[in-house]
Amino acid sequence: MSLVVQKFGGSSVADAASVKRVAKRIASYRKAGHDVVVVVSAMGDQTDDLIDLAQEVSPVPPPRELDMLLTAGERISMAVLAMAIANLGESAQSFTGSQAGVITDESHGRARIIDVTPGRIRSALDDGHVAIVAGFQGVSQTTKNITTLGRGGSDTTAVALAAALDADVCEIYSDVDGVFTADPRIVPSARKIDKIGYEEMMEMAASGAKILMLRCVEYARRSGVPIHVRSSFSKHSGTWVTDGEIPEPFRTASTKDSTMEQPIISGVAHDRSEAKLTIVGVPDVPGKAAEIFSIISEQEINIDMIVQNISTRDPGRTDISFTLPMTDGAKAIEALESRKDSIGFDHIRYDDQIGKLSVVGDGMRSNPGVTATLFRALSDEHVNIDLISTSEIRISVVTRAEDLDRAVTAAHSAYGLDSDETQAIVYGGTGR
Ligand code: ASP
Ligand code: MG
């Protein structure tokens, strides 16, 4: 008998009809003899609605109270789902994150899971229940306050529980059939990836592929939990994220042959949420980069690519450019301007009309020419490259925002990733 953790996102439980559909699916797993732990997100866009409500009564809601409010979304879906399962003749019990033993640090709005003690979940399973757990939340070990894990955090709850319970698989259900070689809304010929390693999936997630949260993949890699990303609207096999074999009871004919050939490039990700900031005329002396990036890190801003060049204005000076989330742009400029005299730079240029394209593939380690193929494809499309950065298994370039779709399409074809048939179906919802 196997233990399966199943996570259903907001669009899979958006209304009563969806909850009933998901309940049927869970009941059929139960009838097939699996132990099932379910992690749910709030119904539909309820988390956003609750944030709007909070904002209406207070422009800066106290973080403790905001977490208390937001966790209510998942409490609703867990209880409703347990009722729907009971209505099908299977017994189910719902648990808040705190009851399920999800222990976090004390930070509100983006708490980190530090331990999972799922004693009550184990007993519920032993007593023959389906255990339903509210995603995205936990309880602080020190303050005993209720915390949330950050937007999209239910994926992390699911993987953490799967790890703590030593589950055979963590299934993440959403409204698409899996991870695709590119976003099907941009590249209709994108194909579903049958299997991908943790490191590649982490690079895809960090490069803008929104299907899985980066933290959840990191967690899965550390604990070795296989993830199966699939649609709750179809019975198709989705994408397996694992470095090992697909566990025996879950192997199908299609997943068996897919382990045969591993493409050099697994996928092309893109990101439209970043901006480029250039500090022009920084004195070319030791310590200036340290000063600049300390200021940025004090603001808790995550930067991505960094490029330093001889200044366009003066050879004794350099220009330092980096990319950062667009939402942090104003904060970064303000912090740097306030230390302008001490750093000694001339001025700041800010550009949020950029796009980032990344190609990811384990095969890059051993195949020369991967970079040349990308640059050739972009040049054939007359796409100008602004910044470049690489890791062992990723190449990222910054382009103009308006060139990004063409660039993604061209790169996808250049690596032979196009499929003859349309594979991607978006079944519903507004994303996750
Ligand atoms: N409901 C939360 C959100 O919308 C958590 C999640 O969906 O995973 O961010
Ligand atoms: Mg959601």
Account of the protein in words:
This protein has 432 residues and is an alpha/beta fold. Helices cover 33% and strands 24% of the residues. It has two domains: 3-260, Acetylglutamate kinase-like (Carbamate kinase), CATH 3.40.1160.10; 264-416, VC0802-like. Helix 6 (198-206) runs antiparallel to helix 7 and helix 12 (370-380) crosses helix 13 (404-414). The protein is globular, with a radius of gyration of 23 Å. The chain starts with a strand and ends in an 18-residue tail after the last helix. Magnesium ion is lined by residues 9-10, 41-42, 47, 432.
Helical residue percent band:
25-40%
The CATH architecture of the largest domain can be given as: 3-Layer(aba) Sandwich
Q: How would a textbook summarize the main sheet?
A: 8 strands, mixed
Q: CA-to-CA gap between the ends?
A: 31 Å
| Shape assignment | globular
CATH topology of the largest domain: Carbamate kinase
Number of strand segments: 20
Radius of gyration: 23 Å
Binding site for substrate: 47, 74
Function: Catalyzes the phosphorylation of the beta-carboxyl group of aspartic acid with ATP to yield 4-phospho-L-aspartate, which is involved in the branched biosynthetic pathway leading to the biosynthesis of amino acids lysine, threonine, isoleucine and methionine.
Protein name: Aspartokinase
Keywords: Amino-acid biosynthesis, ATP-binding, Diaminopimelate biosynthesis, Kinase, Lysine biosynthesis, Nucleotide-binding, Transferase
